[in-house]
Amino acid sequence: MNRPDGRDRPDGRDRPDPTDGRDCPDLPDLPDHPDRRDSPDLPRLPAPTYAQQKGRTPMTRVLVVDDEPQIVRALVINLKARKYEVDAAPDGATALQLAAARHPDVVVLDLGLPDMDGVDVIRGLRGWTRVPILVLSARHTSDEKVEALDAGADDYVTKPFGMDELLARLRAAVRRAEPVGQDGGDQVVVETEGFTVDLAAKKVHREGRDVRLTPTEWHLLEVLVRNGGRLVSQRQLLQEVWGPSYGTETNYLRVYMAQLRRKLEADPSHPRHFVTEPGMGYRFERA
Question: By the 8 A CB rule, do 156 and 135 touch?
């Protein structure tokens, strides 16, 4: 039945619609964080060589956080070969200091660090920056992945990993972090090849016609579109759409994602825009 707050549930009457080089200053001291550990003073690092000063396109700076030298070496070699600037940190405290001093464009983060859990590094970063965080970890369980995503990670790759896939996900994370429009404001109208979402008017158009969505379908669509390209965990979707008391009712998501795909995807059985990340959540892709 319809819930009193207007949000519909899949077990009620709202059933699926079948029609559908200078030295920089000393590294700054960070605010105290409950999970931060003391670490030795870092050496003075050369100032970022961002090429705005020389009229060239700025290079993307990557912060690699991992305590396995072989993985760090492989990442540094591959990233520098592709013209990325790379900083590396062997532990969480060093990572937080480098992030504050160097302002990376993206962070590649291992969760199993020697001084603190990688999830605590995510929370520390999210206290002041929205830099994309790509987790690279040997932790495979869904609960561990969801915990990292809920803490603020943007994507998750498990070890062992393919370098090509990792680099593709890194490029995608950097693209998603780029401001929309010249003023960097939020995008109101999101267009795909097959349909258009007007977030301000709360309307969806497909093939020149309005698409009728239920309130729950619209809310689910809105959360995914506003996080375009980002992996949104199942728990986050449930709590944002159905409320804070929800978190395990993944069958709700399956029902309503199927409805959105039937209404908006050209081929619902092979979706291009509403992508499932098994055991973790969903992602909206424009292309």
Answer: yes
**Amino acid occupying residue 135:** V
The per-residue pLDDT for range 65-122, each reduced to its tens digit, is 999 999 999 999 999 999 999 999 999 999 999 998 888 999 999 999 999 999 999 9
Instruction: Give phi and psi for 32, each to the nearest 5.
Output: -60, 140
Number of Cβ within 10 Å of residue 195's Cβ equals 17
User: Are β-strands 231-233 and 189-191 bridged in parallel, bridged antiparallel, or unpaired?
Assistant: unpaired
> At CA 196, angle to CA 194 and CA 201, rounded to 5?
160
Do residues 95 and 118 touch, judged by C-beta distance below 8 A? no
Contact predicate 109/134, CB 8 Å: yes
* Mode of pairing for the β-strands spanning 133-137 and 155-158: parallel
Cα–Cα distances in angstroms (integers) from residue 142 to residues 79, 121, 139, 279, in the given order: 29, 19, 9, 6
Tokens of 151: 């803490």
- CA-to-CA separations, 69 to 1, 36, 90, in angstroms, rounded: 56, 22, 8
211, 195 Cβ separation under 8 angstroms? yes
Please tell me the pTM assigned to this model. Answer: 0.54
pLDDT beyond 90 at 229: no
Note the pLDDT tens digit of each residue in 196-214.
Answer: 999 888 899 998 899 999 8
- Contact between 146 and 234 under an 8 Å Cβ cutoff? The reply is yes
